[in-house]
């Protein structure tokens, strides 16, 4: 089709070529502005897909920083005109266009902060149901991946049958999937907890068979992503990985480790740390190959890569026991390098991992300890309740680091603990109190501030009815140790349990005694005796 636009003729084919060849978002929006009347459904889909790709490459980010043609992309008139064209041509979209536009819009939202209207996403969901029976394997994978990124408000408005329709499509195309499509599909399901929980066994089997078939040709990213997906699916939906697939993935992982990048190594180790059966059967050659790979890529690891790698080793007992000294040193050097850029979770995860890795902790270089202390102090104000409890608990176990813990860091962590106390779970409360009980310097020379003591007491009383056996034992044991330390303090600094908290913990302990293991039972009985509590 050729249309007359002003003084120039342009065909849909020519227009598509110009869109595909555009080197900037601005250039595509100029085409939308000048030739929108000539756009057909293919041109529209190409424009959205190309803008998403270019926006990522050009570093466009959301809000006031996403500037194109002098204005934020999300509020650009020509971009709004393009979204209008999407709505106009959506009924004509075929499988490829639906998959590409859905993927493009969610990518713009996740990576660039440009949010699509809920109504448009709902219409895309409806279009997906219409074309799903005609989608090929890559289109199904890309669409499911896009669907997994839709935020809750929009997802709630979408058809309740969309998940089932996509599952039918997955089962149909699984035999034709590439390794990339399998990895993308499994990762999408690992994010869609409800869909994963409702996944029919036939769909699980089809994906497992496809993954097993393709392991010999999987790339490093595909192996890492597949393992990561199964580690999440086992947690969320009890989707256990079949034994033949475990073996095949172990062989594939050993094959590709020499070419894995830092992210792939961290993801693979982290996945194995969550896949209990796969970890227990992890072949020695694979453990050695991953250790070599981790040492090789350590200089290129990001803060998150380092934290996740250490966290994985802290959970993989056999791998941790065999962790080469050269790898421990390489990771220590990497930590010192990336500590200034660590976020709150990275800091907490790294410290927590070191507190479990005894040999690595014993060799913790002073410069690295200082770097982590500085990082912890910097991110303390941004820590959530889990970060705070993990950080304090880690310092309580790392004797050398605790002894050198700067007074300013103690103050930052105390303020953080008080700030997040209302959000703490029973485990967070127990771990935080237990950490203070072990940090003799924090408990004696610099005890918990009165306001933090009150905040923790209030939350402990609130969550006591929901505490499990371990949290109850830890909390009672902590108060027992804190009151013992308080006996040597001035009366104004003593840690005393409010009567209402005593009653709440005694009641909780009595409720959970039948579920306690021997250690928890001994801790609870000893603490109750010393605290004068009857259960």
Largest sheet: 2 strands, antiparallel
Globally, the shape reads: globular
Helix percentage:
over 70%
Summing up helix and strand content along with how strands pair, one would put the structural category as: mainly alpha
Strand content: under 5%
Distance between the termini: 84 Å
Average residue pLDDT: 89
The strands making up the biggest β-sheet line up spatially as 1-2
Number of strands: 4
Provide a count of the helices.
Answer: 32
Q: What low-confidence regions span 5 or more consecutive residues with pLDDT below 50?
A: 1-7, 60-67
Would you write up a description of this structure?
The chain has a two-stranded antiparallel sheet. Strands 3-4 form a two-stranded antiparallel ribbon. It is mainly α and 535 residues long. It contains 32 helices and four strands. Mean pLDDT is 89; it is low at 1-7 and 60-67.
Short description:
With 535 residues, the chain is an all-alpha fold. The chain has 32 helices and four strands. It has a domain at 407-535.
Task: Write a concise keyword list for the protein shown above.
535 residues, two-stranded antiparallel sheet, 32 helices, globular
Write the layout of secondary structure elements.
Layout: E1 2-5, E2 8-11, H1 12-21, H2 25-35, H3 41-57, E3 67-68, E4 71-72, H4 77-89, H5 95-112, H6 118-131, H7 137-148, H8 152-157, H9 162-173, H10 179-191, H11 193-197, H12 201-214, H13 220-237, H14 243-256, H15 262-274, H16 276-280, H17 284-297, H18 303-315, H19 317-321, H20 325-338, H21 344-356, H22 358-362, H23 366-379, H24 385-397, H25 399-403, H26 407-420, H27 426-438, H28 440-445, H29 450-463, H30 469-486, H31 499-512, H32 518-531
Antiparallel strand pairs: 1-2, 3-4
Helix pairs in contact: 1-3, 2-4, 3-4, 3-5, 5-6, 5-7, 7-9, 7-10, 9-12, 10-12, 10-13, 12-14, 13-14, 13-15, 14-17, 15-17, 15-18, 17-20, 18-20, 18-21, 20-23, 21-23, 21-24, 23-26, 24-26, 24-27, 26-29, 27-29, 27-30, 29-31, 30-31, 30-32
């Amino acid at each position: 089709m050729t249309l007359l636009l002003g003084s120039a003729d342009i065909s849909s084919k020519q227009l598509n070529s110009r869109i595909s060849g555009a080197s900037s978002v601005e250039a595509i929006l100029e085409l939308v502005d000048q030739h929108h009347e000539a756009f057909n459904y293919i041109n529209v889909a190409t424009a959205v897909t190309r803008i998403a790709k270019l926006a990522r490459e050009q570093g466009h980010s959301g809000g006031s920083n996403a500037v194109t043609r002098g204005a934020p992309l999300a509020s650009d008139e020509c971009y709004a005109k393009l979204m209008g064209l999407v709505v106009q041509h959506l009924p004509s979209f075929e499988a490829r266009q639906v998959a590409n536009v859905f993927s493009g819009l969610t990518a713009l939202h996740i990576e660039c902060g440009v949010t699509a209207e809920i109504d448009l996403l709902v219409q895309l969901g409806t279009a997906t149901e219409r074309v799903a029976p005609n989608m090929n394997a890559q289109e199904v994978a890309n669409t499911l991946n896009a669907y997994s990124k839709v935020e809750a408000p929009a997802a709630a408005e979408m058809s309740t049958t969309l998940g089932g329709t996509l599952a039918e499509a997955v089962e149909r195309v699984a035999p034709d999937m590439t390794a990339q499509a399998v990895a993308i599909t499994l990762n999408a399901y690992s994010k869609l907890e409800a869909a994963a929980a409702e996944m029919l066994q036939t769909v699980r089997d089809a994906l497992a068979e496809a993954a097993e078939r393709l392991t010999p040709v999987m790339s490093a990213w595909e192996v890492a992503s597949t393992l990561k997906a199964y580690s999440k699916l086992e947690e969320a939906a009890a989707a256990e990985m079949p034994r033949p697939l475990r073996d095949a993935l172990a062989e594939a992982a050993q094959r590709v480790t020499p070419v894995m990048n830092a992210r792939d190594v961290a993801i693979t180790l982290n996945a194995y740390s969550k896949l209990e059966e796969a970890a227990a059967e992890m072949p020695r050659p694979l453990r050695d190959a991953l250790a070599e790979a981790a040492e090789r890529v350590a200089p290129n690891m990001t803060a998150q890569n380092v934290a996740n790698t250490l966290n994985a080793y802290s959970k993989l007992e056999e791998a941790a026991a065999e962790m080469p000294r050269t790898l421990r040193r390489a990771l220590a050097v990497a930590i010192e390098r990336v500590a200034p850029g660590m976020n709150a979770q990275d800091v907490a995860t790294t410290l927590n991992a070191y507190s479990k890795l005894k040999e690595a902790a014993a060799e913790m270089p002073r410069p690295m300890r200082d770097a982590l202390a500085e990082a912890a102090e910097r991110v303390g104000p941004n820590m959530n309740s889990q970060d705070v409890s993990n950080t304090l608990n880690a310092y309580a176990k790392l004797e050398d680091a605790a002894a050198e813990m700067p007074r300013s860091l103690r103050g930052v962590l105390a303020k953080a603990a008080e700030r997040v106390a209302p959000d703490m779970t029973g485990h967070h409360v127990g771990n935080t109190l237990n950490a203070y009980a072990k940090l003799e310097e924090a408990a004696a020379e610099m005890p918990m501030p009165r306001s933090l003591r009150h905040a923790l007491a209030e939350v402990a009383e609130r969550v006591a009815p929901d505490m499990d056996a371990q949290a109850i034992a830890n909390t009672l044991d902590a108060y027992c140790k804190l009151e013992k330390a308080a006996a040597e303090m001035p009366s104004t600094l003593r840690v005393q349990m409010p009567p209402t908290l005593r009653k709440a913990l005694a009641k909780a302990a009595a409720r959970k005694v039948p579920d306690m293991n021997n250690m928890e039972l001994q801790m609870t009985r000893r603490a109750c005796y010393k605290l004068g509590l009857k259960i």
